[in-house]
């Protein structure tokens, strides 16, 4: 870096004192920068790049390299530590994309609705919440092919009845999903951080009694998604991709709008498809855990043909083209509709 600074200064025809004046520092400090005995601050690096017409990325990389060498050059395990940190740093350094005008407009409408709802939280009712959570269980299972009606789902969950003509799996799917909703509400109330243990626990609840050997465990076989051209990753890299999934979450959880964060975490999880079964339900529960944790309400994707096709098509576009706009807009629309309905129910 020291050679880079001196060469750039001389190329610009600036004397040390002139550069010091432009940078608003003592001339002696410029000499120390160029000799390597002192390091500029980050703010000074940005100013130097502008004054000396040096590419900011080139100068910043040189500056960071010297900082790292200064801190770690005498450490015995420095190289191993850097190798371990490399993948994680790649996720923390992921540039943040700006949202589109259409999505920004939708998010503003959602936040206006949430602000309206926040003023009337005292009108929240356990019975209303219970009814909406029942609907969520019914619709989320219907997306996956469960044939229980809303009324039958209620009888199974709240009355403990067995519905004639329906399979044991369908009964367990209803009971398990309702318990999983209770679990994510528990995590929200505890203000628990989303991590691997919690996601595996959610999945364990979803498949409990259905595939006990696979419940809460990553798949060990390759899978294909019926009706989709997206091919999930090979089983031997699932654990690594899930590690990256949580790195991404930590890097972005404070930078993104909660609805966008929730949608991204849904899409990323179902794209990895880490489980042999129950990926969709688990992904939607993770999405709704994030929404609830930020004061929003459950985004309930309907299981009718039209809604299901819109959901699947926007999801597949995100998975196969890396264009997530349609999926983000779809989830935002569902959250907006869910907020509007909730507000109309409580009559505010």
UniProtKB/TrEMBL annotation:
SUPFAM superfamilies xref list: Fic-like, lambda repressor-like DNA-binding domains
PROSITE patterns cross-referenced by the UniProt entry: FIDO (PS51459), HTH_CROC1 (PS50943)
One Pfam family matching this protein: Fic
Highest taxon of source: Bacteria
Keywords in alphabetical order: Coiled coil
Originating organism: Flavobacterium arsenatis
Secretion signal, residue range per the UniProt entry: none
Protein name (database record): Fic family protein/DNA-binding XRE family transcriptional regulator
